[in-house]
Every structure is written in structure tokens, then in C-alpha cells.
């Protein structure tokens, strides 16, 4: 009896010892993603030359997708090469074509929406994709969210809107600002379509990643292969006036590498967690964004920022902390 109890204790200790490093690694992964999301806008600002983006946006997107593809191939050969013996057919790869198409459509929709609304209105209304993603996640993955969790997601949406609105108020008070808020009926239709496609692309990808019994790195290889093909076609059709690598700098290189790395992290999140976790990561990134903006550009934090942080903390508590 004593021997059996001793064995049970040893098994419990070993299980706890293996769980702690996994939790720590998972936490570091999410923290890195928060930092990358939060640093994206400041990095793009550092890339500007005389207030203008000097490079072709479509060429950067192609390079990001290509970097994801190469990183996925390297990871596959290093960690999952023994699993390559599994039988793989075009039927495994085909679903990722739709996923890549949805992502590409949404990225291009962002550009065309600017014709029907000002950028600040887009930034505020784009936070509604939190609600659309949660709704589609609940429907397609058959996850019934409690009323408390819906309240948490509403607070998360409100936090994003308030943070964006706070920055908008600062811009309107700026003497150099001649910005006028506007949105047309077509703009309202497009922003609704954008939010739905954004949620659908994320949830659809999560469904594929979880239903296929394949290594994640192989699935990423399929996804980014189609992503490269589609974005190369879009780049060629857009016929940008600038050269392919014109206007590139070390800051642009950092944007490419960081966004590629974050894409791989998000695939891990969707495979082993869910899109709700991804939404909380994106929401939490406003703190990194604000910190870097203050540090690099001497921007001043407003009450809207602190209220947004409070709402995010409350949302996290309601969704994950309360039992």
C-alpha cells in the first residue's frame, strides 16, 4: 500500500514537472505574439519616408507569405520529418486554398474600403470583427458561450473602440489635422463584409487545423503555398509604380520577419487553443502599442487608454478567471 502511494506521488510530481514548462512556454508564446501585434503599427511608422510609405505594400505581403512558407518547411524538416511517412493527398491541401483566398480577399478589402470612409472610422468599426469572429466560432465549432463570456467579448470590443476613439480625439485636436470623419452606405456594407470575412477566415482555418490529423508544420506549408501563389498574382495584377524592393530598409525587414513569425504563432494558437485566445492577444497588444508610441514618438496617453486597459483586464477575468 505504501509502495503504491509512493508511485502515485512520483507520477503526480512528474506530471506537474512536465506541465509547468509547457505552461511557461505557452505563456511566452502568447506574450511574444502580443509584443509583435503591438509593435506592428510603430514599426510601419518608422518605415515612413517624409510621412509616406516608400515601398510596395503588395510586395511586402508576398515576402511575408514566402517567409512563412520557408519557416514552415524548415520546422517540418527539423521536428516533423519522421511524420512525413503519413499518406498525404491533394485532398489534405485543397481546403487551405479557400483559407488563403479568404485571407487575401480581406487584405485587399481593407485597401478598397478606404475609398468609402476615412482611416479613423475604419479603425473604430474594424473592432466589430471581435463579435463576428466569436459568433462564427460559436456556430461552426459548436462552442456554446455563456452569457458571462459574451459580456467579456463585448467588453473586449468596447476596449478596442475606446482606445481607437481616444487616438482619434487627439488627432482632431491637432492644429495640423484637417481630417473629416465620414462613411458612405457602400462603406457600411464593406466594413460589415470585412468583419464577416475576417471572422470566417479565422474560424474556417481553425476548423481545418483541428480536424486534420496532420503535423501543424505540414498544414502551414499547404496554407502558405496557396498564400504565396495568390499574393504573387495580386501583386502582378496591381502593377505597383515602385520597384519590387524599392524603399526597403532594416525596419521593413523587421516588419516582414516579425509578421511571418506571428503568423506561425497564430497557427499554433488556433491548432492547440482557439480564436478567442487570438482575440484576447490582439486586444492586449494595445498596451505594447501605447508603450512604444510614448517611447518612440512622445505621444501622450489619454484617459481612454487607461479605461481600455481596465476593460481588457475585466474581460480576461470574466472569460478565463471566473468559474
Question: Can I get a quick summary?
Answer:
With 323 residues, the protein is mostly helical. The chain is built from twelve helices and no strands.
**H/E element sequence:** HHHHHHHHHHHH
Radius of gyration: 22 Å
Largest β sheet strand count, sense and barrel closure: none
Give the mean pLDDT: 84
How many E-type strands? 0
**Given the helix and strand composition, which structural class is it?**
mainly alpha
End-to-end Cα distance, whole Å, is 36 Å
* C-alpha geometry: globular
Helix tally equals: 12
β content, as a range?
Answer: under 5%
- Helix fraction bin: over 70%
> Could you list the spans in which at least 5 consecutive residues all have pLDDT below 50?
2-13
Give a structural overview.
- This protein is mostly helical and 323 residues long.
- It has twelve helices and no strands.
- It has helices spanning 2-47, 57-79, 90-93, 95-113, 119-125, 129-140, 147-173, 185-211, 216-238, 250-272, 275-297, 303-321.
- The model is unreliable at 2-13 (pLDDT under 50).
Ordered list of secondary-structure elements with their pairings:
Layout: H1 2-47, H2 57-79, H3 90-93, H4 95-113, H5 119-125, H6 129-140, H7 147-173, H8 185-211, H9 216-238, H10 250-272, H11 275-297, H12 303-321
Helix pairs in contact: 1-10, 1-11, 2-9, 2-10, 4-8, 4-9, 5-7, 6-7, 6-8, 7-11, 7-12, 8-10, 11-12
Amino acid at each position: 500500500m505504501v509502495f503504491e502511494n509512493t508511485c502515485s506521488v512520483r507520477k503526480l510530481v512528474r506530471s506537474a514537472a512536465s506541465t509547468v514548462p509547457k505552461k511557461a512556454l505557452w505563456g511566452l508564446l502568447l506574450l511574444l505574439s502580443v509584443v509583435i501585434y503591438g509593435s506592428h503599427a510603430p514599426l510601419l511608422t518608422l518605415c515612413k519616408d517624409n510621412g509616406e510609405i516608400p515601398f510596395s505594400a503588395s510586395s511586402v505581403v508576398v515576402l511575408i507569405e514566402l517567409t512563412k512558407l520557408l519557416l514552415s518547411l524548415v520546422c517540418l524538416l527539423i521536428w516533423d520529418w519522421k511524420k512525413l511517412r503519413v499518406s498525404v493527398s491533394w485532398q489534405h491541401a485543397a481546403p487551405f486554398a479557400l483559407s488563403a483566398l479568404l485571407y487575401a480577399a480581406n487584405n485587399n478589402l481593407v485597401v478598397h474600403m478606404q475609398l468609402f470612409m476615412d482611416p479613423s472610422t475604419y479603425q473604430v468599426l474594424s473592432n466589430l470583427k471581435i463579435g463576428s469572429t466569436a459568433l462564427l466560432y460559436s456556430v461552426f465549432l459548436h462552442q456554446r458561450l455563456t452569457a458571462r463570456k459574451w459580456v467579456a467579448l463585448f467588453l473586449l470590443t468596447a476596449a478596442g473602440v475606446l482606445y481607437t476613439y481616444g487616438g482619434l480625439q487627439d488627432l482632431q485636436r491637432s492644429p495640423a489635422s484637417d481630417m473629416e470623419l465620414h462613411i458612405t452606405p457602400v462603406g457600411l456594407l464593406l466594413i460589415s463584409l470585412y468583419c464577416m470575412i475576417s471572422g470566417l477566415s479565422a474560424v474556417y482555418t481553425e476548423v481545418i487545423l483541428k480536424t486534420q490529423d496532420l503535423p501543424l508544420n505540414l498544414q502551414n506549408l499547404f496554407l502558405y503555398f496557396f498564400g504565396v501563389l495568390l499574393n504573387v498574382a495580386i501583386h502582378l495584377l496591381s502593377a505597383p509604380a515602385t520597384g519590387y524592393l524599392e524603399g526597403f530598409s532594416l525596419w521593413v525587414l523587421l516588419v516582414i520577419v516579425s509578421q511571418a513569425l506571428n503568423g506561425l504563432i497564430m497557427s499554433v494558437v488556433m491548432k492547440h487553443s482557439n480564436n478567442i485566445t487570438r482575440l484576447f492577444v490582439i486586444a492586449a497588444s494595445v498596451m505594447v502599442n501605447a508603450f512604444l508610441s510614448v517611447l518612440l514618438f512622445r505621444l501622450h496617453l489619454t484617459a481612454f487608454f487607461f479605461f481600455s486597459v481596465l476593460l481588457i483586464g475585466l474581460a480576461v477575468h470574466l472569460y478565463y478567471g471566473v468559474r
